[in-house]
Amino acid sequence: MRPQNQIPRQKSPILMATSPPPPRHGPHPPPELPEDVMREILLRVPADDPASLVRAAAACKSWRGMVSDPEFAPAYRLLGGAPPMLGFLYDDRRKYWISHFLPTATSPPLAARDLEHWHALDSRHGLALFYAPRSDAHFVVCDLVTGERWEIRADPKCYDIMWSNLLSDRRLLENDEISCNASVLCAKDGCDHLDCHGGPFLVALVGHDVEGHRYMNYAAVYSSVTREWSEVTSVEQVHTINGTGHSAVVGNNVYVPCVEDDSVVVYNTRDKELSVIKVPLEEQQPYLDLMGLEDGMLLFASVLKPRLYLWSMEAGPRGAAGWARRRVIELGSLLPLPVLEDKLDVSAVGFAEGVGVIFMKTRAGLYKIELESGKSDQVHGGCIDKVMPYMSFYTGAWGPLKASDEASRTVAGATTI
Q1: DSSP 88-131
Q2: If you average pLDDT over residues 17-38, what whole number do you get?
Q3: 361 near 383, Cβ under 8 Å?
Q4: What is the pTM of this model?
Q5: How far apart are CA 68 and CA 41, in angstroms?
């Protein structure tokens, strides 16, 4: 009941006439971004997160038109710099060799899968090299993004490189392996190696053998252009090639490590010449493992727990110019403490060139360490002796664009960027 002395409030006729009616719907959607702004946003999608670019391209026709534009891919690669790591190859030995691919990006290459009786040898410039003795060819080169595959039969003149007399033929036959070091590299003149899909390539073999009382190093190179092997280059040396070690490529030179030696064998694929350079070991370092290439220099690593030591060495046309950089990384905060306290070895087993990621083998599993950020993650629970990162640009996959709600679910075909 209203008090008797209170006058009822009256609505103002002005407010009643001028006040807008309450909205019947939700807030208006924000205005669309201009196409040039949206293109700049798409160009900055992280290269190791191709699934996001696929989802954006499937969202609407205008965004897919931007990603599909012929000028988008070169601009995306140029802004992204080095190709991202899509995953890595490694071998598993059970009753026979099995080559595995473990993805590290959001959308793995469609052509990457486990391969029985295949032995992963090398990965570089968007290509992967395998030894496949039970197929129609000795070697197979694969582009894991496009699915292209090239089979290569070894010339009989290469047999002394592939199978050393120091190992019995029966052991090699049973293990489906070779005793040489094999490398694959892009052979396109002036290539920046940001997008090597479908281009010419080389496969270089560097090995060792014994002729009488002489210890010999051998090398030969295969060209995808001529589809022929070069003549075998040989030189008398006292250096045992590390057939399972990582190689490095600088220009026309392939660098191959030696076993228990402070030497690296250099094979010039253009001039077909072999030479040797000495690695300047320091007294406290019992060994150095060649990891690959960093900023145009050879990268070596060794582990003296609890530290990882990295050296970069300039390698010129006439050999080594000495150390250019030395870094020490404390592993105490990057690896589990029981691993560092264990007597078993901790070693560097792989390096992703261009993105600064190094892989560490421990008894607790495989860890990857980002050298710039210092971030560490376990990527595999087993013991892996050699990691071969696969580097390439990749957008994932999508099929014909349908309605927007259907296109986001479409996964078919393959597209490289």
Answers
A1: EEEEEESSSEEEEEEE-SSS--TT---EET-EEEEEETTEEEEE
A2: 64
A3: yes
A4: 0.81
A5: 15
Residue 70 CA to residue 91 CA, distance in Å, equals: 37
Task: List, in sequence order, every residue forming a beta bridge with 141; answer none if it has no partner.
Answer: 129, 150
Beta-bridge partners for 400: none
CA 395 to mean position of chain CA atoms: 16
Q: How confident is the model at residue 78 (pLDDT cuts 50, 70, 90)?
A: confident
pLDDT tens digits, 147-175:
899 999 999 999 889 987 655 544 555 45
State whether residue 340 is helix, strand or coil.
Answer: helix
Encoding tokens for residue 116? 């029985």
Please, what is the Cα angle at 384 between 84 and 257, to 5 degrees?
80
- Is residue 315 within 8 Å of 299, Cβ to Cβ? no
Contacting residues for 11 by C-beta, under 8 A, at least 6 apart: none
Using the structure block, give the residue that is written with the tokens 């409030």. 9
DSSP reduced 3-state for 367: strand
Identify which of 228, 130, 124 has the alpha carbon closest to the alpha carbon of residue 177.
130
Q: Is the preceding omega at residue 306 within 30 degrees of 0, hence cis?
A: yes
Q: Looking at this protein, which amino acid is placed at residue 224? A: S
Is residue 284 exposed (0-12), middle (13-18) or buried (19+ Cβ within 10 Å)? exposed
pLDDT in tens, 288-337: 899 999 988 999 999 988 899 999 988 765 555 677 778 999 999 999 88
Give the model's pLDDT for residue 76. 77
Dihedral angle sign, alpha carbons of residues 126, 229, 219, 269? negative
For the chain, domains (ranges, CATH) are 36-75 (no CATH), 82-391 (2.120.10.30)
C-beta of residue 262 within 8 angstroms of C-beta of residue 223 = no
Q: Are 250 and 296 in contact (CB under 8 A)?
A: yes
Would you call 172 helix, strand, or coil by DSSP? helix
Residue 390 near residue 359, CB atoms below 8 Å: no
- Write the secondary structure of 39-84 as one string of H (helix), E (strand) and C (coil): HHHHHCCCCCCHHHHHHHHHHCHHHHHHHHCCCHHHHHHHHHCCCC
